[in-house]
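Data availability (excerpt). All sequences and predicted token strings are deposited with the supplementary files. A representative entry, NAD(P)-dependent dehydrogenase, short-chain alcohol dehydrogenase family, is shown inline so that the format can be inspected without opening the archive.
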Amino acid sequence: MKLSQQVAIVTGATQGIGLACAKRLLAEGASVMLVDIKPEGAAVAAELGAQARFFAADVSQKADVDAMVAATLAAFGRIDILVNNAGVTHAADFLDLTEDDFDRVLRINLKSMFLCGQAAAREMVKHERGCIINMSSVNAELAIPNQVPYVVSKGGINQLTKVMALNLAPFGVRVNGIGPGTILTELAKQAVLSSPEARNTILSRTPLGRCGEPEEVAGIAAFLASADASYMTGQTLYVDGGRLALNYTVPVKD
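Structure token line:
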């Protein structure tokens, strides 16, 4: 097991990509603190075994983030890995988007990664080791007209990943990102897979001809957290079925 005796925090961990990452890190031998604003995460963690714990937090709030770090240290004694995964979307055309909704998405998607990354890194640098993984998106590069704050937040995450990596490299802490394409999560089903027509639009831009599974993103997270990626920092790996390489559309199978 590649992550034996290591301790990970995964935010947005009660479903979708976050839950898949938590399960994969556990399978690789890590102890995992699952973090989510949803209190039902306690039952999810209980099902995953003794090496999984749950902490309820709004990771866009510094007090909650500080408490999350303290709880992880109390439970496991160290922090080796942070998977910054919490995120939301909000659909609205640019002219109709409210300031409150713009601020809310940026606070949850981007500010939370700064807060969690800083708090975890302060522990990691004490031991000159650690790995932070920020969950970005192909929408850091590609825009969706009615997903204004989501697209902006993901672009910001890519730059945050780079500047964190540069700042923390002297302390032995690596920072990388993952940019998923369309992954079969509840978030994606609500945002971009809401109808057969929407599905066909997505698949027409995906050379591999299918959506991804959360476990396929989790595999990349496990790789980035492991010694196999020991010389990687400041990178964002796109898990997108070939979408960013495509300059046209492809046929869609029924």
